[in-house]
Amino acid sequence: NAGVTQTPKFQVLKTGQSMTLQCAQDMNHNSMYWYRQDPGMGLRLIYYSASEGTTDKGEVPNGYNVSRLNKREFSLRLESAAPSQTSVYFCASTRDLTGELFFGEGSRLTVL
Amino acid sequence: RKEVEQDPGPFNVPEGATVAFNCTYSNSASQSFFWYRQDCRKEPKLLMSVYSSGNEDGRFTAQLNRASQYISLLIRDSKLSDSATYLCVVNDNRGYQKVTFGTGTKLQVIP
Predict the structure, then answer these.
(1) Cis peptide before A83 (omega within 30 of 0)
(2) B11 contacts B105 by C-beta, under 8 angstroms
């Protein structure tokens, strides 16, 4: 039962470096999401993909780009990392837009 | 004012105690309500949905008060394994871009 798989689980970057967080789900879900979680802020939506071939901005999209590669995979790219992007990133998926969110285990990113 | 507000706690309770959490929301158009559980350094997982008539799942009871715009979670006979952070989640059903998470209430059950 893999569910939602994220890689890498931990990453340390220097300011200005780029990286891609990978996410894959094996539940045949249509919708996928990227959230970030910061202390005292709750989970905030970065980008989402309601279905294969579509992506939309969430609450905090600045500094990020996404790709919905196929129905299974949804990646998040930081083109030029900044210390403000230090956070825990969660990928999630749902069968439809109102169903239960299934989360990956999280990716802990530190930008120095 | 935050869209979804929760008391951050921590709530420290002895095993066997009953504990209740409240969550208030500001958007009167909100349609769906949930409680998620998040263990330390883990991902959130759905605990239960909250229905208008209230609902119960074993030791857990969720209530919704639309007039006062709050939801509650009651845990009876607390177990050590209930120690976690409980996230209140509100959705106005216009898509998941409109889901709002509370910052969570931390529960520590003490032996």
Answers:
(1) no
(2) yes
Q: Check CB contact of A1 with chain B, cutoff 8 Å.
A: no
Tally of CA atoms within 13 A in the half-sphere of B85 that contains its CB: 22
Surface of B (15-74) touching A: CB under 8 A: 32, 34, 36, 41-46
What's the CA angle centered on B38, arms B110 and B99, to 5 degrees? 140
Closest CA to B84 of B48, B51, B44, B52: B44
| Span B39-53, pLDDT tens digits | 998 999 999 999 888
Count the residues in chain A: 112
The one-letter amino acid code at A3 reads G
**Contact by Cβ (8 Å): A89, A103:** no
pLDDT at position B98 is: 72
Task: Count Cβ atoms below 10 Å from residue A45 Cβ, excluding itself.
Answer: 22
